[in-house]
Design a protein that fits this description.
Rossmann fold; 258 residues; 10 helices; alpha/beta; five-stranded parallel beta sheet; binds zinc ion
């Protein structure tokens, strides 16, 4: 069993008089979360808890600083998050999401970090998040900063998915399904309830319907199967993604380096 990092440095623990020196040229890690229904067995904070835990490991491995996660997210949609038919979801509309992320980035840019790593945990955030970053015109706003932003599931390799998730329905439908359930069983078993509802007919990606038959689209807010979920599977997936992220940071992926 691999141990989680104990030596994570938190941006929020710094004082104003310390932060300029601590951040200039350093790595900042920011998890973009969500507050969204995840069926009857998982808490509302899943989409924040998972990227924040991954971000903590990435920060520890890169000698970076971990920012507080953005706790809310873009609008939940029926084919990928269950939508707003279930209580508890708190969201920003797309334009607000772009503006909120861009405002935070603009403030952080003044501290001139050397690298910014953004880890997304909510499916509907992705396009808006990338637009917010790109819309900041990073060449001008972050002239000396490498930026790597990704949704955590993007780093799950196809071969890993084929080996561990034979019935995989696609990431859009992995909402409160086997991967999020397993990750939460590993990371926060105290808040995972004993029920394991599944949904045999996961929704198709890239389709919007109205008016929606909520009963057909999900099972109590769960979009796909939870069968086989375990803390062990969650642990494997967690470190697969974290290791992939750290490799990407070290290699620079597509980042132009002198
Ligand atoms: Zn989720």
């Amino acid at each position: 069993m691999r141990h989680r990092a104990l030596n994570v440095r938190h941006y929020g623990d710094l004082t104003s008089s310390e932060v300029t020196e601590a951040v200039e040229g350093a790595t900042l890690v920011w998890a973009i979360g969500g507050l969204e229904q995840h069926g009857p067995h998982l808490p509302l904070s899943v989409d924040r808890d998972i990227p924040q835990a991954m971000g903590a490991e990435i920060a520890a491995a890169t000698d970076g600083l971990l920012l507080p996660a953005l706790p809310v997210s873009a609008r939940s949609l029926p084919q990928s998050g269950g939508g707003l038919h279930f209580p508890g979801t708190v969201y920003l509309r797309g334009t607000s999401m772009i503006n909120a992320v861009a405002d935070c980035l603009t403030a952080l840019a003044r501290l001139r970090p050397g690298r910014l790593i953004v880890v997304n945990g909510h499916y509907e955030n992705e396009g808006l998040l990338f637009e917010a970053i790109d819309g900041c015109r990073p060449t001008e706003t972050f002239p000396g900063t490498e930026i790597l932003a990704f949704s955590w599931w993007s780093l799950a390799q196809d071969s890993w998915v084929a080996e561990h998730l034979p019935e995989f329905p696609g990431w859009h439908a992995e909402h409160a399904g086997i991967t999020e359930t397993s990750l939460m069983m590993y990371l926060r078993p105290d808040v995972v309830r004993p029920e394991r509802p599944g949904h045999d007919t996961p929704p198709m990606a890239g389709v919007y319907v109205h008016p929606l038959d909520v009963q057909r689209m999900s099972n109590d807010g769960v979009l796909s199967s939870t069968a086989g979920a375990s803390a062990e599977l969650g642990e494997r997936l967690f470190w697969h993604v974290v290791d992939g992220a750290c490799d990407m940071v070290r290699s620079g992926y597509g980042v132009r380096r002198a």
